[in-house]
Structure formats: structure tokens, C-alpha cells
Amino acid sequence: MQFCVLITLLTCFAFSRGASVAQEGIEKQDERVRYDNYAVYKINYDNSIQRQLLLQLVKRHESFSLWHDSPTEIHLMVSPLALSEFERNLIRANATAEIFLANVQNLIDNETEANAKATSSFGWTRYHNLAEIEAWLDDILATYPDVTEGFVVGKSYEGRNIRGIKISYKADNPGVFIESNIHAREWITSATATWFINELLSSTDDLIRDLAENHDWYIVPVLNVDGFVYTHEKDRLWRKTRQPSSISSCVGVDPNRNYDVHWMENGGASDDPCALDYAGPHPFSEPEIKAMSEYLGSIKDKVNVFLAFHSYAQLLLSPYGHTAEKFPDNFDDMMKVAKAYADAVGAMPYGTIYNYSSAADILYPASGATNDWAYQEGIRISYTVEFRDRGRFAFVLPPAFIIPNAEEVLIGIIALIDECKKLGYLNLK
Q: What is the reported pTM?
């Protein structure tokens, strides 16, 4: 019964930290969602039956939230009042758990404090909200008018512009498209995207200058603008869009399950409007994703490489997401490209390790995702890149890690692009 003893100790530990929750569910104070004494556990299991038993908990949305899922472990956020139920299901599944994060609200409070202490000017020692990012983009466009061009992907459900920037130093360059912050809570992605933009425009390093000047860059720092604003104003851990459901009181759709590519196939998304991976009532139901498909579709003949920035887990995920039973015809090449990225990052002093394979192979089915749609549209080098870390901080990666993560991404992309060139993927279409 070691799992029972372990979870009992974890229960005692969680409540010893001063939990005082008066009601089931997430507390709300000052109109912000709080996660006081919500804990995240890493749960190891041996087979799919155990996994399915554990994932039954996720249907209790107010008490359990799935943060990460792989063939050997899941990361689960647990309400302090649901620990007894968690213990019972852990015993039933004959699985073991260890605590990753004892109090999620502490991480959020520490992040808020670090942001407050950082300089008020735009930089990469703190996380910025949408208004700050857009003001910075305006400054960048004004500072580098000869090589930059702003574009609007479309409008969100709440009427916000979804903005991007094109960086082009000369004609007839191969194109690279970067999508960022499709999942609202993954702040490290837009922080990394803006740092990357700045490096392309301002760095004097020879490798970076070659990267910047010999490729056209299309970068969307924040795709899920409504959800991103909501994470800054209401709920730091919000993931989805903000369009209400016609069949539920739950709000939003997982935008990375909403593309018209093997939509809802093989259990790769949920039909429950309250689920984090809800695919929506139909493909392209979300105006953000419909707009993105139309914009990217309009320039797909100019784009050789597509990268979707996500967190967390330190992975490069290639198509396919809907099945592990078959792979793209250029899968071997994509693994060579992914290996180049992972090797370059791993060789840096930080020693960060990235794994890589198809999304369905290394994780579990995830249908309707952006990288699968981009591949379907003819962009044959297409990845989801899951940034740092592997669970220590998860979605609330402290601002101190912004630059180290961004440096790794830059070095990784340099290696990725170089390998693409060797394999012939940067020829003009």
C-alpha cells in the first residue's frame, strides 16, 4: 500500500501549509481566480487501463486539471478539498504519485512579485500584457520600417486584432512562420517570440544576421488574444478561447484542437465544453482559428517552415497528432531536423534536454492541431515546440527563465534551419 501511504503524507503536507478553503472549487478574491493550496502531482503508471482510471478524475473540472500527459506519467492539479477522492482513485489504479508543486498560488504570487520588481520599460525580465506587447510592436515597426511590416491575422471573438510582424531583408527568401500563445496561459511563448524578434532585428552576431537576412519571418506573438488578456486580468491558468458555448455554461474552446484536420479523431480531443481540450462544436468554430487558417493559407506558398510555440515539457512534436499508426512520408527528415534542434540546445551550458517524435507517438492523440493543419496545407517542416520546463514550474515559469529559454530557442532554430537547408526544404516553392 505504498501509494496510499505516499498520498496520505502528501495530504498532510498540503494542509500543513495553511489551507483554509471554505468551499469546493477555486476561490475568487478581488475578482481574480486563486489557486491557494492547489497542488500538482506527477503520477506514474504502467498501462493504459491505469491511465484511463486516473483520467476519469479530469471530468471533475472544478477539482482536477490535467497539466501534462505522456505514455508513462500524467501531471494533475488537485483541489485541496479533493485529496480524499484523489487518494481513492490512486489506490484503485494501483499507481504512485509524487508532489511537483505544493501550492500553485505561491508560484503565481512569486511571478507577480517578480514582475512588479522588474523595470517598467519593455524587456525580458518580466512578462508583459497584450497592450504592452502591441505598443512594443508599434515601436519596432517604427524603428525598422525598411525591413518590417505589420499584419493582422484577423479579429478575435471579443473584437481584438490578432497582430503579427513580417521581417524581410530582401526578396526571394524562404519563409518561416511562428505562431505563439495559442494557449493563453503559456506566457513564456510570447515572451520568447518578442525576444526572438528583437534578436533578428538588432543582433550583430554573424549566425543571427544570416538567420535574419536570408529568411522571411512571419511571427504572431499572441494568437489567442482574448484568452491571454483573461490570464492577466482574471485567471492566470486559463487555456482556451473566450467564446461562450451554446450548450453549456462553460466558456471557450481549445484553439489547438479546432483546426479542420482529422478533427475529433481517435480520442484526440474532447466534446465536453468544460474540458480543457474541448475541440469546439465544429472545425474552425473559433474566429481566431478560422482567421489563422485563412491568413496562413493565403501565404502558404511562401512558407517553408512552421513552428508553433508552446509550453511545457521540452519536446519537438511533428505530425501526426491524430494517430501513432502512421507517419508523414518525410518523417525521417523531420526527425533529423528535430534532432539538430535538440542537439544544439542540449550542447548549451544550461544542458536542457529536448525529446522529439510525432505528437501521437511521444504523447497521446491530439487532433485538430495547428502543426498538423500546416503540414496538410503543404508546409512540410511543421512542429509544435514545447518549451521549458518538465514540471518544476510548468505553466508559471518564473521571469528569470525567459532569456535562458529564449536563448535556447534561438540556438535551436539556427540548427533547425541549417538542417532544413541541407535536406532541401528551403528551396523556393
A: 0.93
